[in-house]
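F.,

This is the one I mentioned.
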């Protein structure tokens, strides 16, 4: 099987310096998710082994995606809430962003999991590959759409809104925000 839909989206998953947001922890997490999905695409397209258990492979990847996404989105929400309370970031934009995250966790990922449960019903090989390719392509498109900046044809994703805001913040405010985040992560770790 060619996994055409996956091949198509793979090009979009490369890290682009336009995605940098001045908060290195967020950049590292965004790069991490894009690299992870990119490797996932590569592994799916390069597998030729008849013994390969595609259902189990997808289950492992989706489990990791689920845990990684929840941790990252929580961190991003924490940063945005500090930006609202201390640095004037618009509350409506924060709420819009959190709603998008909630939809991802409570609707999008639930749908992906449902698609994947069908893989375990031992349907024919072509159908399993078709479902796996579609699910991965959907995941890749969601994350690309969330992180990306504006392009000739497409509007920017929601992360671009706070990126622009961070770029306009005074240097001392940015340092204060980073300190607050650091205190939060230390608390989280202890
Ligand atoms: Fe986000």
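My design for it:
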């Amino acid at each position: 099987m060619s996994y055409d839909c996956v091949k198509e989206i793979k090009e979009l998953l490369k890290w682009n310096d336009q995605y940098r947001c001045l908060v290195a922890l967020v950049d590292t997490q965004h790069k991490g998710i894009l690299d992870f999905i990119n490797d996932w695409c590569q592994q799916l397209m390069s597998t030729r082994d008849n013994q390969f258990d595609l259902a189990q492979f997808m289950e492992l990847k989706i489990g990791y995606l689920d845990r990684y996404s929840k941790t990252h989105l929580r961190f991003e929400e924490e940063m945005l809430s500090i930006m609202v309370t201390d640095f004037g970031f618009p509350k409506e934009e924060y709420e819009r962003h959190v709603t998008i995250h909630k939809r991802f966790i409570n609707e999008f990922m639930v749908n992906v999991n449902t698609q994947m449960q069908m893989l375990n019903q031992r349907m024919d090989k072509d159908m399993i590959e078709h479902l796996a390719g579609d699910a991965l392509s959907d995941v890749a498109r969601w994350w690309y759409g969330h992180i990306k900046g504006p392009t000739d044809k497409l509007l920017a994703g929601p992360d671009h809104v706070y990126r622009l805001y961070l770029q306009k913040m005074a240097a001392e405010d940015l340092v204060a925000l980073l300190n607050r985040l650091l205190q939060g992560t230390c608390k989280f770790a202890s």
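The mean pLDDT is 87.

Talk soon.
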